[in-house]
Automatic annotation (TrEMBL):
Source organism (scientific name): Oreochromis niloticus
Record Pfam families: Lectin_C
Name of this chain's protein: C-type lectin domain-containing protein
InterPro entries in the record: C-type_lectin-like (IPR001304), C-type_lectin-like/link_sf (IPR016186), CTDL_fold (IPR016187)
C-type lectin domain span: 1-109, 111-224
Database matches in Gene3D superfamilies: Mannose-Binding Protein A, subunit A
SUPFAM superfamilies associated with the record: C-type lectin-like
Domain of life of the native organism: Eukaryota
Coiled coil: none
């Protein structure tokens, strides 16, 4: 058994990567090929605590817990109970991740006159975003010291404890092989981010349901091998030459290859994620890998 990171390295060295689960059929396939034991198997799903987005441009940004002008409150972000995916300013200057369904005042940005508008009406993060996009430009972003200074001036003396800004993240959107899958099959009350340290996705071998877990725990793991599918182009050739001649065959092959290359039809390959090659180690009788 390996930690999530060790399992990832093992899968990448010997196969393609930790498995990505795109739909219920794949989920069921893994379950049908697994031993019915009270244990877990790592899958490729993980939560990146450093990946965030601004509502205004919807692009991933990465920053650690220390930043020049994006300052987190003490102990934040902690994603308490795996429910805090939106960010509010706390005490006008520090950031705190909060449940997106909580209601707070919010700060809009208007790009036409470069102004910041504090709306002292309590709204959820999504409702605040909708309001700002309807009447202004969007929820505010903080992308420079100058913007941070202007926001602080806007909030000065407002008396608000929390105020929504445009920072948020997509929970559990990352897979080890960098593909995209929105399918999930969480157990009841999962993910729960127990004591704020569960970043990796695990598959229950007895129920096929998922949970978040400590990445340093040792579990079975699922690998997959990506195979290629090649498009075959068939051509009919007519010639008075002796087509059984090796020399003629080589000449025709060269001409056909050149022609096909010029039309961009050669080596048409599509990577397909095929999971029936869930390789079995000798110490494991099902399609999950175990390494002591």
């Amino acid at each position: 058994m390996l930690t999530w990171r060790e399992a990832q390295s093992y899968c990448r060295e010997h196969f393609t990567d930790l498995v990505t689960i795109y739909n219920s059929n794949i989920n069921q396939l893994l379950f049908s090929m697994s031993p019915r034991v009270k244990d877990w198997a790592w899958i490729g799903l993980y939560r990146d605590p450093y990946s965030w987005k601004w509502s205004m441009d919807n692009k991933n940004i990465y920053f650690s817990f220390t930043h020049e002008f994006l300052i987190w409150a003490n102990g934040q972000p902690n994603n308490e109970k795996a429910k805090e995916y939106c960010v509010a300013l706390q005490g006008q200057t520090e950031m705190n991740d909060r449940p997106c369904g909580d209601s707070y005042p919010f700060l809009c940005y208007n790009a036409k006159n470069t102004s910041y508008i504090l709306v002292k009406e309590n709204q959820t993060w999504s409702a605040a975003q909708s309001y700002c996009r309807t009447y202004h430009t969007d929820l505010t972003s903080i992308r420079s010291k100058e913007e941070k200074s202007n926001i602080t001036l806007t909030l000065n003396g407002s008396g608000v404890q929390y105020v929504w800004i445009g920072l948020y993240r997509d929970p559990w959107a990352s897979w080890s092989d960098n593909t995209t899958s929105t399918f999930t099959d969480w157990k009841s009350l999962e993910p729960d981010n127990y004591i704020s340290l569960e970043y990796c996705g695990a598959f229950d071998l007895k129920s096929r349901k998922w949970a978040d877990g400590y990445c340093t725990t040792r579990h079975f793991f699922f690998c997959f091998t990506a195979v290629t599918k090649q498009t075959v182009v068939k051509m009919k050739l007519q010639s008075e030459a002796d087509m059984h001649s090796t020399e003629i065959q080589q000449q025709v092959s060269q001409q056909v290859s050149s022609s096909v290359t010029n039309t961009n039809l050669t080596q048409v390959q599509t990577m397909l994620h095929v999971f029936h090659h869930l390789h079995i180690l000798s110490s494991c009788q099902a399609s999950c890998c175990q390494k002591d």
